């Protein structure tokens, strides 16, 4: 018989709230990211970490200590850190002779590694290299994927990871039109084997119509990514992870049809009406005599007996 | 006409001032408006990408942004706090979840029971109390303090020990209730996680009933290493004073008439009787076989005896001491050998001496004695 582990109730209201926030939900919170440094990091990488962190500041944590981790050998310490921080995305930066300016992008499902991709960062230009006005904190960026992201499993995984990392606030019902001001582009250059990442600020200009004319201004950071090693989730696991809860699936509406003219037609079911019991006008002449009533009562009693 | 032409001219001039918002692309983009994502599968101009990288990418980004903005501006808008907001459609880009899909919380035993029976208990939070002349909470925050104010004095019940402290007694009872509730909570938790936990036994009660005492005595009795097998019976002890969890319930189908089941049960009995196979008891079979062999041999001897009578007497006395003929007899039935041993032993004490007087007696058979 397994020993029943002691289950401790949260003692404070605050503690309870924290635990509740961490529980799995139907509609999930925005994914949280942690930024980690490996054994060694170059100056470029520490700038990279800081700049990317400032892009996703509201939903991320940067950890400043050096960590002697090798995620492709042993991912458990990172899983532990993610669980502790209640986050599911990580960006791990390390620099070595073999893999200069190395960054690992990864994510977990149910506190276990789902997939991760190792990329090298090249031709880096940071936020401060562009002397322009930056975007507001926590704006939801528009993501453009240009070029080929479908040919290899690594590229499509990288695309999915990048969307997960940079799509900002999730499950938004509405967005303020003035709040759309940031653009991230990911251009896959298959000839060079690079993915170029750029970041722009949107400027809305008059166009003489309702929809504005768009102009862009580069705000940084800009860098190229070169795919190195990768660990891709098995299809089964990915399928489980991408499952939508039964409760959130839209139910088909019954008995509502649209015809070719665009009119909505509905079918309504009504129960049979009891017309014989309808109360009509009361008249003295139609009233039942005491004898009649007595007979009726007797009949009713007989039926019930 | 003049006016119309003028207006058109003016509009054309106006339009010239502004840059266009239309973009031409050979392949349409794929949009996910829920997450503001576009996927552009058009071929890249690799020459420009190499030579005029920044400007080329900026142009591409501008065009794509213009396209998605055109789409967004067509979505229905609403005014929230004096800011125009667009309603976004649900996202189509499949992203993995962070955690598992939550399972519905398991009901406690009481909740399950209440649901089954349709019990809905609703306690009012506040009730009017005549003693303190106040609205008083029935549970939760400030209930305890109100109770303390209310019960500044406690009545000593009849037949109670007058020197007993009623206040401390009440505190003790409360502690007991809390402990019991905690136990139930843990048991519910274990139940929801499918963990087997040992039986609690009996919880202490204020005034135990006779059934309670019976159960307690049963539990005490069966709590020995041999599960109470050698425990003496109490006078007037009830035979089935088991705690309710240990009593086996009869299954419903034995009570409900079910012709199919009944037929099946009867048929199984009939089959059992008709198709009875003989059971092979090896020991018994060996014994009968040995016995038969022995019988045969003795028959043979008898026929031989008819030839010469004088010699046989000598042979018989020799055999009694444990000679060759007894080889098989040692394995005979228990009862027989015991009988043979006892009677044969007496005889041996007289005739064959101490060597065969002990355990060796068993091999003698009554047959031999008869013959004498």
TrEMBL record, chain A:
Keyword Nucleus carried by entry: yes
Cross-referenced PROSITE patterns: BRIX (PS50833)
Protein keywords: Nucleus
Alphabetical GO biological process terms: maturation of LSU-rRNA from tricistronic rRNA transcript (SSU-rRNA, 5.8S rRNA, LSU-rRNA); ribosomal large subunit assembly
Pfam families: Brix
UniProt region (Disordered), positions on chain: 284-305
Gene Ontology MF term list: rRNA binding
Biased composition (Basic and acidic residues): 288-299
CC per GO annotation: nucleolus
Subcellular compartments: Nucleus, Nucleolus
Domain Brix span(s) in chain numbering: 31-236
Domain of life, source organism: Eukaryota
PANTHER family per the UniProt record, alphabetical: BRIX DOMAIN CONTAINING PROTEIN, RIBOSOME PRODUCTION FACTOR 2 HOMOLOG
Homology family: Belongs to the RPF2 family.
Name of protein: Ribosome production factor 2 homolog
Protein's organism: Ladona fulva (Scarce chaser dragonfly)
UniProtKB/TrEMBL annotation, chain B:
GO annotation, biological process: endonucleolytic cleavage in ITS1 to separate SSU-rRNA from 5.8S rRNA and LSU-rRNA from tricistronic rRNA transcript (SSU-rRNA, 5.8S rRNA, LSU-rRNA); ribosomal large subunit biogenesis
Highest taxon of source: Eukaryota
Region described as Disordered: 226-255, 288-372
Keywords: Nucleus, Ribosome biogenesis
Basic residues composition bias: residue spans: 303-322, 361-372
Keyword Nucleus: yes
UniProt subcellular location: Nucleus
Annotated family: Belongs to the RRS1 family.
Entry function: Involved in ribosomal large subunit assembly.
Designated name of the protein: Ribosome biogenesis regulatory protein
């Amino acid at each position: 018989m397994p020993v029943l582990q002691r289950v401790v109730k949260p003692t404070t209201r605050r503690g309870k709230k924290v635990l509740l926030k961490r529980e799995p939900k139907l509609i999930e919170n925005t994914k949280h990211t942690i930024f980690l440094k490996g054994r060694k990091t170059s100056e470029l990488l520490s700038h990279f970490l800081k700049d990317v962190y400032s892009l996703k500041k509201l939903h991320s944590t940067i950890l400043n200590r050096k960590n002697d981790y090798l995620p492709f050998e042993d991912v458990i310490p990172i899983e532990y850190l993610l669980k502790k921080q209640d986050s599911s995305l990580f960006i791990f930066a390390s620099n070595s002779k073999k893999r200069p300016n190395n960054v690992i992008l990864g994510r977990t499902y149910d506190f276990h590694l789902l997939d991760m991709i190792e990329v090298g960062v090249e031709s880096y230009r940071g936020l401060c290299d562009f002397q322009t006005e930056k975007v507001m904190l926590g704006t939801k960026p528009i993501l453009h994927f240009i070029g080929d992201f479908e040919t290899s499993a690594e590229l499509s995984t990288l695309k999915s990871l990048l969307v997960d990392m940079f799509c900002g606030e999730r499950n938004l019902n509405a967005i303020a039109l003035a709040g759309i001001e940031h653009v991230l582009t990911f251009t896959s250059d298959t000839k060079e084997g690079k993915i170029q990442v750029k970041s722009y600020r949107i400027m809305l200009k008059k166009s003489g119509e309702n929809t504005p004319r768009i102009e862009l201004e580069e705000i940084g950071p800009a860098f190229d990514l070169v795919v190195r090693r990768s660990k891709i989730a098995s299809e089964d696991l990915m399928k489980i992870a991408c499952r939508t809860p039964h409760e959130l699936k839209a139910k088909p509406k019954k008995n509502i049809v649209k015809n070719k003219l665009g009119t909505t037609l509905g079918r309504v079911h009504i129960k049979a009406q009891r017309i014989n019991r309808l109360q009509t006008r009361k008249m003295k002449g139609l009233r039942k005599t005491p004898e009649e009533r007595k007979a009726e009562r007797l009949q009713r009693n007989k039926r019930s007996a | 006409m003049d006016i119309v032409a003028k207006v058109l001219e003016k509009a054309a001039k106006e339009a010239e001032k502004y840059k266009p918002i239309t973009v031409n692309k050979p392949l349409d983009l794929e949009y996910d408006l829920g997450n503001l994502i576009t996927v552009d599968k058009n071929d890249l101009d690799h020459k420009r990408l190499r030579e005029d990288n920044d400007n080329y990418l900026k142009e591409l980004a501008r065009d794509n942004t213009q396209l998605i903005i055109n789409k967004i501006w067509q979505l229905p808008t609403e005014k929230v706090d004096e800011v125009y907001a667009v309603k976004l459609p649900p996202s189509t880009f499949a992203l993995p979840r962070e955690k598992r899909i939550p399972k519905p919380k398991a009901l406690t035993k009481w909740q399950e029971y209440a649901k089954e029976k349709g019990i809905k208990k609703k306690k009012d939070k506040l009730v009017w109390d005549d003693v303190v002349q106040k609205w008083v909470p029935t549970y939760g925050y400030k209930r305890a303090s109100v109770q303390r104010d209310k019960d500044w004095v406690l009545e000593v019940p009849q037949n109670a020990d007058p020197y007993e402290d009623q206040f401390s007694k009440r505190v003790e009872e409360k502690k007991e209730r809390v402990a019991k509730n905690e136990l139930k909570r843990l048991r519910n938790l274990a139940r929801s996680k499918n963990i087997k936990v040992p039986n609690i036994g009996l919880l202490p009660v204020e005034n135990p009933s006779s059934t309670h005492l019976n159960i307690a005595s049963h539990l005490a009795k069966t709590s020995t290493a041999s599960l109470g097998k050698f425990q003496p019976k109490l006078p007037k002890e009830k035979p089935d004073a088991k705690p309710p969890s240990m009593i086996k319930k009869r299954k419903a189908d034995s009570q409900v008439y079910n012709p199919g089941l009944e037929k099946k049960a009867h048929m199984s009995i009939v089959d059992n009787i008709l198709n009875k196979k003989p059971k092979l008891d090896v020991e018994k079979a060996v014994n009968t076989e040995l016995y038969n062999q022995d019988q045969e041999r003795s028959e043979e001897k008898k026929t031989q005896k008819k030839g010469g009578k004088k010699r046989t007497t000598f042979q018989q006395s020799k055999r009694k001491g444990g000679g060759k003929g007894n080889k098989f007899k040692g394995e005979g039935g228990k009862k027989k050998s015991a009988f043979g041993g006892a009677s044969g032993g007496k005889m041996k004490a007289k005739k064959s001496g101490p060597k065969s007087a002990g355990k060796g007696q068993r091999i003698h058979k009554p047959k031999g004695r008869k013959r004498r």
